[in-house]
Structures are given as structure tokens and as C-alpha cells.
Specification:
293 residues, alpha/beta, Rossmann fold, 11 helices, 20% strand
Length: 293
């Protein structure tokens, strides 16, 4: 049987099969490591200028479930507001946010989380993004840092977030290593990404697995191992403040609902979010603390 080396643990990954892309109608090969349960596309589409176009950010590209332009232009009407609110609440429950706190949202997309946090907390918040939407978002006054600026600011951030970013990367340890270098010792890394564990036996049919863009799939133990190798101390803290809002957004997004409406207040999101979490393990991934030098 043919094997490829796992980029996380170095074990031998086996081919699971192929899945044809949504927009790039070619077969993408999915491999799985039985040691650490990292799954990855072996022939990823790396023409990022062709992927992350204006159409992508308008929800007319590879991922029709998003509309980053609407979220940027109408932030108070978008259901994404629930996710921003939830992430801020969860991070605030884990680390003391002060006026001198420095927070970087890595792979920030339209910068919505950056703007929300800056408007609701007195602290320094920045975004890093390389896609088409960066220039559009910057025109709204959202502060972006480019790669050279980040290199000069290594070891200065108290918080780094990466919201639905890690599934897009070809080399998880390289990206996690960079994030670790950006944090000061003791700093917090908070991220979200899909939990592949409930879908281990049906990854090829998992709706989250969009093979043009979601090329790295993780189970909680997988990402815990990767974080440790990258210089973090992972901590499995589970469901906490803010998670009900984060899950609320995910449910609405997957239902194709983009706008806030009064009827959403009638849903018992507290118990519903717990049930969703129980089934899909949304909060099973760890948070991570940057180890000392």
C-alpha cells in the first residue's frame, strides 16, 4: 500500500480516496495518518490568487456559505456578529484584557473580529490577511499588519486568534510555529477549525471538507500534538463563556442564514448549543499557551 509521510507526527499516512472540487472540477486526494489522525489533501490547489478572489469573498466562489463583503459592509445585520461576540467573550474568560493588551487576528479575512473587539474593548487589536479583501477592509479603517511588520513584532502579542484558518494551510507546524513566535511567553492562542473526529469514517462525505480550500483536517488530539511540537502548552478547557454564540453562528451559517432576525431570539440557544457541541465536538479542540523561550 502506498504511503505518504505525515507532516505532523512523521508517521505513514494512507490514501482514503478522492473528492472532486466544487469549482475546480478535479479529484483531490485525501490521506489520513492512523497515528495522529491528521488528514490532508496531497495535491492541494495552491494558486491562491485564483481561489481567494472577489467572487470568493462575495460567497460566489469555492465556498458559497460565506459573504464576507456583506459582513464588512453591514456588520450589525450579519449573523457573524454572534461569532465575534462569542470569541471576545471566550478570550476574555481566559485572559485578562487590559488597555495595553495586544491582540492579533491571524488570517482575519474582512477584519470583522478586529473591528468588533476594538469597538467593544479598550486594547490594541490588529489583523493580518493576504487575500483580495484586505484592501477593501482597510478602507473601513481596520488596521492590518503585513508579513514584514509581523516579523518585526515577534514576541509582542498577548493574544493571537485564528478563526477557521488552520484548515487552509499546507504545513500546520510551520504556521503554528510562526504564531508561537508572534506571542509573548504565556500568551494565548485561540482558534477554531472543524473537528474531524466525529467524521473519521466518512471524511470524504463530510460537508466541511471542501477540497479546494480545506486541505488540513484535525481531531482534537491531532491539533494538541501539533501545538506541543510548535512550542505551545495545549489545554483542553471545553465549553465555556461565548461558545453558545459561536455555535449559534455556525448553526445559522450552515442553514444558509446570513442576516440577523428577531425570530432568532426565540430559539433556546443555550441548550441547543450544548446538544450541537455534544454531537459535533465544536469545543473539543484545545486552546494553547505559548511556552517560554
Amino acid at each position: 500500500m502506498e504511503h505518504l509521510q505525515c507532516k505532523i507526527c512523521g508517521g505513514g499516512a494512507a490514501r482514503l480516496g478522492s473528492k472532486t472540487g466544487i469549482s475546480k472540477r478535479e479529484p483531490f486526494q485525501l490521506w489520513h495518518c492512523p497515528v495522529c489522525h491528521y488528514s490532508f489533501v496531497s495535491n492541494p490547489w495552491t494558486d491562491y490568487q485564483a481561489i481567494y478572489t472577489e467572487a470568493y469573498y462575495r460567497g460566489k466562489g469555492v465556498d458559497p456559505m460565506v459573504d464576507y463583503l456583506f459582513e464588512l459592509e453591514e456588520p450589525l445585520r450579519s449573523v457573524r456578529l454572534y461569532e465575534w461576540r462569542g470569541i471576545l467573550a471566550r478570550v476574555a474568560s481566559l485572559i485578562d484584557l487590559k488597555a495595553e493588551t495586544r491582540w492579533l487576528d491571524f488570517g482575519c479575512g474582512n477584519g470583522g473580529l478586529v473591528r468588533y473587539c476594538a469597538q467593544n474593548r479598550d486594547m490594541h487589536v490588529f489583523g493580518h490577511e493576504q487575500g483580495w479583501i484586505k484592501e477593501k477592509a482597510a478602507s473601513y479603517g481596520i488596521p492590518f499588519l503585513d508579513s514584514a511588520q509581523l516579523d518585526a513584532l515577534e514576541g509582542t502579542f498577548d493574544v493571537v486568534t485564528a478563526v477557521e484558518v488552520l484548515e487552509h494551510v499546507t504545513d500546520p507546524l510551520d504556521v503554528l510555529g510562526r504564531i508561537r513566535r508572534l506571542l509573548r511567553p504565556g500568551g494565548l492562542f485561540f482558534f477554531t477549525t472543524g473537528n474531524a473526529k466525529p467524521f473519521r469514517k466518512k471524511l470524504l462525505s463530510w460537508s466541511y471538507f471542501v477540497p479546494e480550500i480545506h486541505i488540513s483536517l484535525y481531531e482534537p488530539e491531532t491539533i494538541g500534538r501539533a501545538l506541543t511540537l510548535a512550542g505551545f502548552r495545549p489545554q483542553f478547557v471545553g465549553f465555556g463563556p461565548g461558545h453558545a454564540d459561536i455555535i449559534k453562528f455556525k448553526v445559522l451559517k450552515n442553514l444558509g442564514i446570513r442576516r440577523i432576525s428577531p425570530i432568532q431570539r426565540l430559539v433556546p440557544w443555550g441548550p441547543l448549543s450544548r446538544l450541537v457541541d455534544l454531537k459535533y465536538g465544536v469545543t473539543a479542540h484545545p486552546i494553547a499557551w505559548a511556552n517560554g523561550p
